[in-house]
Design goal:
Chain lengths: ~325, ~280
């Protein structure tokens, strides 16, 4: 087990290190001068020189990289060009919207997908199964941002139950509150969950059907367990292995989906922040947000790898 | 009966393949038709006729600048096809090369290719497009590159897995015993035997590329005006939701039907090319 963990940990750290190098290189070394890109072609030489000094461009690239990574690890990040605030502060503030949104979407996805997948598998080749599979096929084809617009059209424009976008804040001082905040995240989370749940429901169904064909399931039934008992005690635990893997892979889609859906609902999260940063040519913010999102994807993949091994001991044995 | 005739016969009896093929053919036909004809020039502004309802003159109405929606949808299909073909082409060309290399060489080469694939997965297409867009400015090329780069590890992994299975077969062992080198074996035996897997993946990746391009264009990172794109049409329609809600429906339907068609065709091809898998589903 320790050999397995060590190998995965090494790969995880190496991936993070290479990713940070790539993000740094793309946004700092290409093409030419980052200060010129941020200020545009019309910038005066004085403004350019001032920004170059502020960004530390007078230092060699390896020193700048070390300074950047060291700052990220200690939480001391550079100031945003357009907000004149440390990016860590900006990001932390925006995460108060993005993290609950992603968590809500993931929760909805998991519940919906497991229910639909298990239901379809338990009615294999019957009307319920065909219906769920047809629905999931349509769900996969619908872009989450279009579904988000359709939700706005129905619930904000036609029924006028909710506002078409925006976020009131989590506290009453900000003009919102816990319920108001949650309510404004509900439609975006549903929009995100639909596509993810459609994919995961298909995987769950296939995984459950696959395990149901195994000999140990037949043995469990032969020793007198009911179909339901067999499903909950034996089938689901084993079927969770591929489901868990796909959930890990889906997390990257969820992150990018969150960026898009935040823009549809004008939510002040990470997605809005990075697009405002692109519009303002604030490469410091773009760099730090991209690095954070890449790190999240890598960390989730690492956690899934470890969980995968815990659920399936054969993997540990073959790897050790 | 020849294998091709047998395949065609089975394909005609496969409902989801037929439905997918019809929808995909409509997408291609729309793109081809728009090369030679569209009801109106898609970028032609006609303010007196803005937000016109569907009529004989404008089949699907006009947008807030009086541009014909049907014409924009037709020409927008070109974008989807171009992005799909190039982004999948990049993934196929480089991914298959790397996957075949990994399977033929094994050892550290295989390990390096797989770790590089893992690494690339950490950069979803949208994040790459954000980085490239921030530096080089948004545009169709940025979008295509970002989607194409993400496709490389997808094809590399699938190729390597399928190629490893072929390398374990007896006829490959016989070829090696006869003195053929790894590249000759890859060309003669591996590629023909993994072609079906790659065709299925290419179809599904094409659908994913259409979705990704639409999302990037919606966010302003993909196709730029005046070139019409379904994603950007949705972005513009969102500002008119209260006045003209249907504007937000047409492009979404076009995207969803195209993706649905390609996915159904991919699923159908998988069943038809690998009947053992079909029986298990």
């Amino acid at each position: 087990m320790s050999v397995f963990l060590f190998k995965r940990l090494f790969t995880f750290l190496a991936t993070l290190a290479v990713a940070s190098l790539l993000v740094f290189s793309v946004l700092e070394l290409l093409p030419g001068n980052v200060a010129q890109v941020m200020l545009g072609e019309t910038a005066t030489p004085e403004a350019l020189a001032a920004l170059e000094k502020k960004l530390g461009l007078d230092q060699p690239a390896p020193a700048r990289y070390g300074h950047w990574v060291g700052g990220l690890l200690r939480g001391h990040t550079a100031n945003s060009f357009s907000y004149d605030t440390p990016t860590a502060e900006l990001i932390t503030e925006r995460l108060r919207v993005t993290v609950p949104l992603a968590a809500l979407a993931m929760g909805l996805t998991t519940v919906l997908a497991l229910l639909l997948g298990i239901y379809a598998a338990s009615r294999h080749n019957q009307v319920g199964d065909v219906g769920v599979m047809a629905l999931s096929q349509v769900g996969i084809a619908i872009p989450s941002f279009w579904f988000a617009i359709l939700l706005i059209l129905l619930f904000a424009v036609k029924l006028q139950w909710v506002s078409a976008g925006g976020f009131p804040g989590w506290t009453e001082d900000e003009g919102g509150g816990a319920w108001a905040g949650l309510k404004s995240l509900l439609l975006p989370a549903i929009a995100l969950a639909l596509v993810q749940a459609a994919i995961l429901a298909r995987v769950t169904r296939s995984a459950v059907l696959e395990v149901m064909r195994e000999d140990f399931v037949r043995t469990a039934r032969a020793k007198g367990l009911t179909r339901r008992q067999t499903l909950w005690r034996h089938v689901l635990r084993n079927a969770m292995i591929p489901v868990l893997t796909i959930m890990g892979l889906q997390f990257a889609n969820l992150i990018t989906g969150t960026i898009v859906v935040e823009n549809v609902f004008v939510l002040p999260g990470i997605g809005r922040l990075v697009f405002q940063a692109i519009a303002n040519r604030d490469l410091v913010v773009v760099r730090d947000v991209v690095m954070l999102l890449v790190a999240v994807v890598v960390v989730v993949n690492f956690v899934v790898d470890v969980l995968y091994a815990l659920v399936d001991p054969r993997l540990k044995a073959s790897d050790a | 009966m020849s294998p091709a005739a047998g395949f065609a016969g089975r394909a005609r009896r496969h409902p989801s393949f037929v439905a997918g093929a019809v929808l995909s053919a409509l997408l291609v036909l729309a793109a081809l038709l728009s090369l030679v004809w569209a009801p109106y020039p898609p970028a032609e502004i006609d303010i007196p006729n803005k937000l016109a309802a569907p009529s004989a003159a404008h089949w699907l109405g006009t947008d807030s600048l009086g541009r014909d929606i049907a014409s924009q949808l037709l020409v927008g299909a070109q974008n989807s096809i171009v992005v799909g073909v190039i982004a999948v082409g990049i993934g196929l060309a480089l991914g298959v090369l790397l996957g075949c290399l990994a399977a033929a060489r094994r050892g550290w080469v295989e390990e390096a290719v797989m770790r590089a694939s893992d690494f690339t997965f950490a950069f979803p297409a949208l994040l790459s497009a954000i980085m490239l867009g921030a530096i080089y400015g948004p545009g169709l090329l940025t979008g295509i590159l970002a989607i194409g780069i993400f496709n490389i590890p997808v094809f590399a992994r699938i190729t390597r897995g399928a190629a490893n299975a072929v390398w374990a077969r007896e006829y490959v062992l016989a070829s090696r015993a006869a003195g053929f080198g790894p590249w000759r074996i890859t060309l003669d035996h591996v590629l023909p035997n993994i072609a079906s897997v790659l065709i299925v993946q290419a179809t599904i990746s094409f659908a994913t590329a259409i979705l990704a391009e639409a999302a990037l264009s919606y966010l302003g990172l993909g196709t730029q005006p005046p070139q019409p794109s379904w994603g950007r049409m949705l972005n513009e329609a969102q500002t008119m939701l209260f006045q003209a809600p249907l504007l937000a429906v047409y492009p979404g339907v076009a995207i969803a039907l195209s993706v649905l068609g390609l996915n159904l065709m991919g699923d159908g091809l998988r069943d038809l090319l690998d009947p053992r898998l079909a029986r298990r589903r």
